């Protein structure tokens, strides 16, 4: 049980806290040797002090004894940490940003809630709370779909960056010194024939680091790197986007293929006129393979006959094996079918079908430990070489 004088002193602390809050200060008080009950008791005590605040220059004084609060604080053992606030308190939390980023990625509250293992109503309430606190909508709402607006697009890079850094801090404090979750995107050829070996090496070096791979065409992967849904992209085609960094990585070559029974099979070389007389099956627009082929066929555009556009490389190879159509795919993708004799290669010296693979990243993306580890693996597997330093010296690392 504490004496009235001790309770009196504790009461001074309470008054001082109120005084400091009036001055827009943040106070953290740690009282050594006093229980919360003692503080509560002091609040109910007849010795509770009052405040006489005429201006910031005057100090609170006790009505009972007239002692200044600063003098009374010396009567007990305590530690006060004071930080003057020079700007308003933050009105968001990391959870708000997680929900915002997930909603931007899925364009759906329900999908974002499922990803974050929370109820849809809780996710919706938190997102609305974030928007109302700043009186700025982040999405345009059309039914159940949400489209990120200009304000949301401006916020997304900073939100992603902060979440990545927070994840790294969490891993450090939890004793997880290696990379955290890593999101990789790759085009079909790279995703099917190059990325698996890289992922296996990554998993062997960092068995506890989650790694996800998303496969799409070049346009799809670039769009998701641009909106921070993916950490890195491995693509086959060139693109123009001021927010993205493209770095040359591997060399590749497209090959023309046909059915072994096709009239052009066995001819070496095949002239461009002979090729233009045939019908073709090709990849869809937006893919890196189609981009390289379009560039090679540009001088012959009016005479080029495309019968089919398919999104899957395997579908093109199978169609060529069963028809009279000419196809064009990466030599990496066609290697197995060529070795088994299901298709044959056509030599066409008139067409330049050489190309490069690229590593794609966002200029404002924080380079996470997972990204660093994967880039080192890429450098060990190719002529990527010193270009890795372009990423590892990124201004946002």
The name CATH uses for the topology of the largest domain is D-Maltodextrin-Binding Protein, domain 2
CATH homolog superfamily of the largest domain: Periplasmic binding protein-like II
CATH top level assignment of the largest domain = Alpha Beta
Shape: elongated
Quickly give the CATH architecture of the largest domain. Answer: 3-Layer(aba) Sandwich
Q: Report on the biggest sheet.
A: 9 strands, mixed
- Poorly predicted regions are 13-58, 71-87, 383-397
Q: How many separate structural domains?
A: 4
Percent of residues in beta strands: 15-25%
Radius of gyration over all CA atoms, rounded? 32 Å
Estimate the mean pLDDT confidence: 78
Structural class designation: alpha/beta
- N-to-C terminal Cα separation, in Å? 55 Å
State the assembly state of the protein chains: single chain
Give the helix tally.
16
Order of helices and strands: HEHHEHHHEEHEHHEHEEHEHEHEHEEHH
Give the number of DSSP strands: 13
Task: Produce the secondary structure layout.
Elements: H1 4-22, E1 25-31, H2 36-44, H3 69-72, E2 78-84, H4 94-106, H5 109-115, H6 120-134, E3 139-142, E4 145-148, H7 150-173, E5 182-186, H8 188-193, H9 195-205, E6 211-215, H10 218-226, E7 232-235, E8 244-258, H11 272-276, E9 279-283, H12 288-297, E10 305-310, H13 313-322, E11 326-330, H14 331-340, E12 344-346, E13 354-362, H15 369-380, H16 388-392
Parallel strand pairs: 5-6, 5-7, 9-10, 9-11
Antiparallel strand pairs: 1-2, 3-4, 7-13, 8-11, 8-12, 8-13
